[in-house]
Amino acid sequence: xxxxxxxxxxxxxxxxxxxxxxDIAAKESRSRAISKSLNLQVLDFGKTAVETxxxxxxxxxxxRGAIRARPGHKxxxxxxxxxxxxxxSGNYPVRESDVKSLxxxxxxxxxxxxxxxxxxxxxxxxxxxxxxxxxxxxxxxRQSNAIGEKAFSAFVRECMGDDMEIxxxxxxxx
Length: 174
Description:
The protein is of the alpha+beta class. It has 2 domains: about 5-55 and about 130-160, no CATH class; about 65-125, no CATH class. It has helices spanning about 5-30, 30-35, 55-60, 105-110, 130-160, and strands spanning about 40, 50, 65, 65-70, 75-80, 120, 125, 125-130. The strands form 4 sheets. Strands 1-2 form a two-stranded antiparallel ribbon. It has a two-stranded antiparallel ribbon with strand order 3-8.
C-alpha cells in the first residue's frame, strides 16, 4: 500500500472512531448542554480529539471540592437550572470569565419568592462528578474492534474494487 493510501486509511479510521466515541459520550452525559456541545477537532495526522468548549465540563466530569464565597459576596444557585436567569436561555458560560452575576433587582426578586428555588450560601461542600467520558470509553472499547474491522474491510474494498470478497478477523485496540 502506498504511503498516501495508508495515511488516508489512518485518518479516516481515526475520524470514524472519534465520531463513534463522541456519540457514545453524548448519550452517557446527563448534561444536555455537554451532550450537545461535544465536537470533533482534527489534530495532526491520524489524531482526532473529542472536546467541549465549556470550562466547567472538567468539574462536571470529575467533581469538585468545597467552594467558599469571596468576602462580602454570596454563592447563589438554583435548585432547578431552568429557573436561573443567567443560563435559562441555554447560554452556559464557556470561559470562567463568562460567568454572570444576578443583578441586585434579580437577587432580591428571587429572594422574596422562595418558590423559585434560589439557594444562597456562604459556602458549599464538594460534589461528586459524572464520569461520562469514562463510561463512554468502556462502551467504546467493547465496540472498537467491530468499528475497525468494518472500516478496514470498506477501505480494502475501495482500494481493490467491489468484486473482492473480504473476511477480516482481528483485533484493534485503543
